[in-house]
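Work Package 4 report. The design task specified in the project plan requires that, given a folded chain encoded as structure tokens, an amino acid be chosen for each position. We show below one input record used in the internal validation round.
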């Protein structure tokens, strides 16, 4: 007998796989497969005391040392019950997740006589976007996840003897009384998504060396990482607040450094695309003419182009709200370092600043 986890479907084919599923229709409730999801639709104004629509696995499976997991995009409305049920082949045994009219997501089991392991935490459609019932050893575990990779235990029973020998996987919509059309969406049945993209980059620090008495003799020790000339001027005129301004990083593609650029708008006008920006750097310090700050992170979208980092002061020197892009002053350009340029995926790029003596930026 196949394990329950071997029943997989991402509904991307656009038609129901009748080798895996059966549908029990109901008046006022329809289904379709669009956008890679199985959609259960309840018509506006529909009211029926016991109307039930069911999507059920065609075959029975073994639950021992297995699981059932699903991504629930939208579990209907507060007027529409939606349930994932793992049902035993005999004795009325079942284990389920139920989103009904209340604020909670009900998780519990039923052994044919009694309910057990019941909890009803407040439903969070983001943190509880994935539901999983898992059988490991003698235990049963109800878990939720925001991404199908990191799971949070919600309730469990450590020692439970399964009553049935085989189990089916079912999705129900029932007891519907709707004032407007509603849709419950099912996706990725036992299909584990790839883990979120993560990368860490460490830009090489910038060391500006100025020959005394010669304002033209500025060099950048780091081979390609460099400060903008207007930043160096602005340090002397008070246009930057290293300890007080909101300093941010932009992860950009399609950009070539230009000494004439002064503001973030110049970078954009030059054809750069901003993939994501960091929050304002925290923990800024200046010690022995070196600037440092805490590591930071940028939420990214997948893009096949190489990306580099542009640092800029988003606010006034004293802080406060972000200014328009044509007033956000450029500071440093970081195309080189460990992991740079980076080709981001959908996830997070962590910027870990160097621990060398010059830190992020040093004068002299």
């Amino acid at each position: 007998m196949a394990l329950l986890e071997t029943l997989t479907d991402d509904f991307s084919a656009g038609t129901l796989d009748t080798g895996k599923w059966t549908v029990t229709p109901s008046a006022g409730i329809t289904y379709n497969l669009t956008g890679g999801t199985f959609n259960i639709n309840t018509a506006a104004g529909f009211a029926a005391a016991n109307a039930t629509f069911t999507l059920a696995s065609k075959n029975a499976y073994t639950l021992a040392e297995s699981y059932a997991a699903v991504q629930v995009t939208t579990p209907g409305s507060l007027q529409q019950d939606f349930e994932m049920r793992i049902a035993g082949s005999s004795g009325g045994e079942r284990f389920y997740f139920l989103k009904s009219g209340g604020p909670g997501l009900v998780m519990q089991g039923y052994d044919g006589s009694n309910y057990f392991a019941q909890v009803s935490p407040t439903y969070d459609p983001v943190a509880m976007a994935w539901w999983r019932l898992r059988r490991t050893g003698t235990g049963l575990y109800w878990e939720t996840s925001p991404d199908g990779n990191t799971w949070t235990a919600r309730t469990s029973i450590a020692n439970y003897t399964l009553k049935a020998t085989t189990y089916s996987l079912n999705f129900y919509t029932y007891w519907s009384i709707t004032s407007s059309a509603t849709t419950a969406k099912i996706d990725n049945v036992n299909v584990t998504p790839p883990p979120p993209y993560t990368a860490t980059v460490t830009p090489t620090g910038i060391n500006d060396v100025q020959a005394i008495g010669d304002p033209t003799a500025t060099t950048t020790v780091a081979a390609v990482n460099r400060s903008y000339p207007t930043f160096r001027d602005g340090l002397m005129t008070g246009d930057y607040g290293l300890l007080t301004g909101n300093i941010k990083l932009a992860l950009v593609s399609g950009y070539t450094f230009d000494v004439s650029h002064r503001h973030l708008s110049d970078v954009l006008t030059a054809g750069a695309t901003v993939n994501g920006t960091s929050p304002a750097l925290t923990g800024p310090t200046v010690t022995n003419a070196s600037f440092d700050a805490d590591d930071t992170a940028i939420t990214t979208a997948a893009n096949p182009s190489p990306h580099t980092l542009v640092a800029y002061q988003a606010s006034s020197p004293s802080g406060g709200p972000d200014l328009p892009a044509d007033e956000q002053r450029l500071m440093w350009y970081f195309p080189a370092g460990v992991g740079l340029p980076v080709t981001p995926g959908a996830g997070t790029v962590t910027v870990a600043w160097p621990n060398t003596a010059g830190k992020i930026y040093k004068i002299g």
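The chain has two domains: 4-193, 198-363. Validation will be extended to a larger panel in the next phase.
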